Amino acid sequence: MVRARLWRGFFLGSTGFFGGRDDSPEMRVAAARADSKLYLMDHDTTRRFQEVLPHRPVQWGRAVRALAQMRGDFSDDLMMNYALALEGDDGERGFQAFRTEPGAHDLERNRPDLPATLDDWEQLSRLPKQSLGRAYLALARRDGIRVGDLVAGSLTVQDEHERAPDSLRRWYRDRIVARHDLLHVLTDYDRDRAGELQLVAFSLGVGVTPTRVYRVGIVLALLGVPPRILSGFARDLWRAWRRGISARIPQAARWEDLLPLPVEQVRARLGVAPLRDVHPKGVWREEAGSGRWLRVPVRDDSVLAA
Hints:
The protein has 306 residues and is an all-alpha fold. The chain has helices at residues 2-11, 25-36, 60-70, 76-87, 90-99, 104-110, 114-119, 121-124, 132-143, 147-155, 160-163, 167-187, 193-206, 211-222, 230-246, 255-258, 263-270, 275-278; strands spanning 283-286, 293-296.
């Protein structure tokens, strides 16, 4: 029963597993406007801004080829190529949704550089000890995260420029890359395989794009979950998904203003339920060295500690 509800949510969400082009009235109107007129943006004085990009089909063949190349090699380049192949219109749909949210206009006008902010470890170290920024800094130091490197890597992928042909979309996509590890901190799902899967389930609940990438990825990833824990792990994925549904994380969140605040305050503001309430039996971690997947008790004293 639980697993059936899990699959229904993953596959029959707002766009559905096979949801391709968004044919909603809003998208059709926007597309018609884009076909008839190009718009100039404040920051795009040398490059014309197209309000809605043309429909982009899912590249199933490219995704299969990338998947075949992996064969245990889960490098950032291969994973990014695989994700972009499945993106289709999801990335553009997320961009259009972002522009309708409260606060998006101010963000577009000011365009704060979130990757640079998160890579300024010296400045983050000056924030209060229990703040979101300090918690992120601890994670970044532990795993050697440099958002600038992740952004630079995305720019080397073929046809990425077609998905962000102007400076506004480029800024938006870089911001989405930077947000990912902040979500790790907020959810307390670690950056190992078990944690990434739980974060994917949470993100599907929130409605974070690209949804198709997440849905396909989570199904394929479940094939690699140890059979002995599959049933229990699937239930926890459902709990993570429900946690995401109840959260209120706008795409136009001004993360720069949230970094100095206590982590618990940020969670409360964004509706992210405490980890212990969602996973009372413990949270899944991948044991260092052995690679075993274990459910370990949740601790209250630190982020990403269990």
